[in-house]
Write a structure and sequence with these properties.
- The chain has 15 helices and twelve strands.
- It is α+β, with helices and mostly antiparallel strands and 406 residues long.
- The strands form two sheets. Strands 1, 3, 4, 5, 6, 7, 8, 9, 11 and 12 form a ten-stranded mixed β-sheet that branches. Strands 2-10 form a two-stranded antiparallel sheet.
- Helix 1 packs across helix 12, helix 2 runs antiparallel to helix 10 and helix 2 runs antiparallel to helix 14.
- This is ABC transporter permease.
Length: 406
């Protein structure tokens, strides 16, 4: 049997009320708490970023295709729906769905209030499954077979401002020449928490937008393209650009909302700084634990040297002890971190203010590769650091070590 490991195991089995035993518990606790905090931090970070992205995608898309124009207003330049790209997009493996929509500005009037809005006209190809996460009351639009549907879905913010309830009839005034007005019925209320959408966007029938703009039923304002994987955004945008008509352009969502994505990138930097500080604290705690352990075992070190053990063998004794502490801390850290994360994941016990954070609870998203990486990085880093205090063994003289009083 390996002598260093044998002595290390004997030390671990020693029932002692010494100061070392308390310090060892502190070391295990520091590693466990540090790893648990890192696991929870990454789970929240990944979950929060995914939740914000999902909200963006639910009312927008990964890529938008529109006509190339100098027009900067909400009145879109018409483009055909049944293009070669639209008819054959399923041949592009990384695209999940494409839908034709059209935006038009107007004024929404209730019995008491008036507000400017942008109606997003959607058709029967609209991805309601993606949007449904935002629907807090009512139902989706029922499309008419021969004419346009008079049903709309408005945001909770607009409903509160204009004092509108489900099933209320409201008027939409379209400012054009000649001006037009249409009565519509509120069948649903949504909420994303994103001010860019909630303050003025409503969902209606694309056929209504086509009617108001005097477009035919093969005309829309733009395409919305959804990908199977967000990581393929740049590559797929390049593919789409090559496949659409020459008078069209493809715009990534990261270019449409740069401020939001810059903010999400900033979160990554902040969390890395926090995690770095946690690891530094855990490393210093382990160094302190080993130093105390070695000071208390100084007579043993002197005796082992007197019996012919070299510095490397003695150092391994304390490295094995340190590894034992690390593994216990890792075990407890995973149990605490994953356990607390699962509680929040299933029961959502920690709420958030949607006015400030865009969502109503702390989101959790599991990335098991990152969790595994955190475990491995923690073990390797702390194990590398704890070899530093063991160097003190080589500085100890046999005579002085044997004279040391516990």
């Amino acid at each position: 049997m390996n002598l260093s490991r044998f002595i290390s195991q004997r030390i671990q089995k020693t029932k002692s009320e010494s100061f070392t035993s308390t310090v060892v518990k502190v070391g295990i606790a520091s590693i466990a708490i540090g790893l648990a905090v890192m696991i929870i931090s990454f789970a929240i970070l990944v979950g929060y970023k995914q939740a914000i992205k999902d909200k963006l995608f639910s009312l927008s898309s990964h890529i938008q295709v529109s006509k190339i124009t100098l027009n900067q207003s909400y009145e879109e330049t018409p483009m055909p729906i049944k293009t070669n790209f639209y008819n054959n997009y399923r041949q592009t493996s990384k695209i999940r769905h494409v839908q034709a929509v059209g935006n038009k500005a107007g004024m929404l009037k209730s019995s008491e209030e008036l507000a400017g809005i942008i109606i997003k006209g959607v058709g029967k190809d609209y991805d309601w499954q993606t949007f449904s996460q935002n629907l807090i009351e009512g139902k989706r639009i029922t499309f008419a077979d021969t004419s346009f549907s008079n049903e709309v879905i408005i945001s909770k913010r607009i409903a509160t401002r204009l004092k509108i309830k489900l099933s209320d009839d409201v008027l939409i005034y379209f400012i054009q020449n000649p001006p037009r007005v249409r009565k519509v019925k509120v069948v649903g209320i949504y909420e994303t928490g994103l001010e860019e959408f909630d303050k003025n966007h409503i969902i209606g029938d694309l056929a209504l937008v086509q009617k108001m703009n005097e477009w035919d039923n093969n005309t829309c304002g733009h395409y919305e393209i959804f990908l199977k994987n967000f990581d393929d955004l740049d590559e797929t945008t390049a593919v789409v650009t090559n496949e659409i008509n020459q008078d069209m352009r493809a715009t990534k969502i990261t270019d449409m909302f740069p401020a939001i994505f810059d903010w999400l990138s900033l979160l990554d930097k902040n969390i890395l700084i926090v995690l770095g500080l946690i690891l530094v604290v855990a490393c210093f705690n382990m160094i302190s634990v080993l130093l105390v352990m070695m000071m208390e075992r100084t007579p043993m070190i002197g005796m082992l040297k007197a019996l012919g053990s070299d510095n490397t063998q003695i150092r391994k004794i304390f490295v094995f002890n340190g590894l034992n502490i690390i593994l216990k801390g890792i075990l407890y850290g995973n149990l605490i971190g994953i356990g607390l994360g699962l509680i929040q994941y299933y029961f959502k016990v920690i709420p958030l203010d949607p006015e400030n954070y865009y969502i109503s609870y702390v989101p959790i998203e599991w990335d098991w590769f990152i969790i595994m990486l955190l475990n491995v990085a923690t073990v390797l880093l702390i194990l590398a650091v704890i070899t530093i205090p063991t160097l003190i063994v080589s500085k100890m003289r046999v005579v002085e070590a044997l004279k040391f009083k516990e």
